Amino acid sequence: MIWNLSTLFSDPISVLRELMYMIPVILISLTLHEWGHAYAAYLCGDPTAKNLGRMTLNPIAHIDPIGFLSLLLLGFGWAKPVPVNGRNFKNYKVGEAVVSLAGVAMNFLLVLLVSIVLVVLGRTYPAAFSNEALLSILLYFLSLNITLMVFNLLPIYPLDGYHVFELLFARILPAKFFLFMRRYGNWILIGLLFLFNRIGYSPIGLVRGWIINVINFFIVL
């Protein structure tokens, strides 16, 4: 979310209330995403993250202050990258793929869990949706984790999807392409975010809309 300063000053209570809903969702979502990377690396034979205290569910170990504030205020942010040493993997390619996708898998599980909760509440106790706090938290959980899941699958460095893309196409595409992506990937991401913000449309928003429509279908079924 990009905060409107006029709203901040004209209705600070509403802004603070929304922040109270958003902060725990961001902390839980980012923490589980990074924990997924660390735990997957450990299972694949690399104890680096565990030894550095990153295989934990303590948000303090994972949250980057600037990335957290950026996500909170601008709708785009990041956590501290989990340190991984691929030389420790029992199988390098498998380990790289599993670790790269583990964070996305955690966000998918959160999307699945919240979707089930929404469907069950909608079909058995629809009055629960009149609780503004509960509904706001569930919907933000859903929206944020769909965003993290889809965004991290983009094949752009340094996102998780890029590492899988590189594993799949390293022998097909020229090395210069991957050097270019590693050098300019961050700028490409910034450019895409700026473009999506200007046109008011993104593939992430499209996927989010599809999933919410599917959930609504099962609620009224």
Describe the structure.
Helix 5 crosses helix 9 and helix 6 (132-152) crosses helix 9. The relative contact order is 0.11. The radius of gyration is 19 Å and the shape is globular. The protein has one domain (5-220). By secondary structure, it is mainly α. The chain has helices at 5-10, 12-43, 48-51, 65-74, 92-124, 132-152, 160-169, 175-199, 203-220. The chain is built from nine helices and no strands. The model is unreliable at 1-6 (pLDDT under 50).
What order do the SSEs take from the amino end to the carboxyl end, as H and E? HHHHHHHHH
The biggest beta sheet is recorded as:
none
**Spatial gap, N to C terminus:** 32 Å
Estimated structural class: mainly alpha
Tell me how many strands there are. Answer: 0
The value of Rg in angstroms is: 19 Å
Strand content: under 5%
Round the mean pLDDT to the nearest integer and report it: 87
* Total helical segments: 9
Number of domains: 1
Low-confidence stretches at least 5 residues in length (pLDDT < 50)? 1-6
What's the overall geometry?
globular
The level of helicity is over 70%
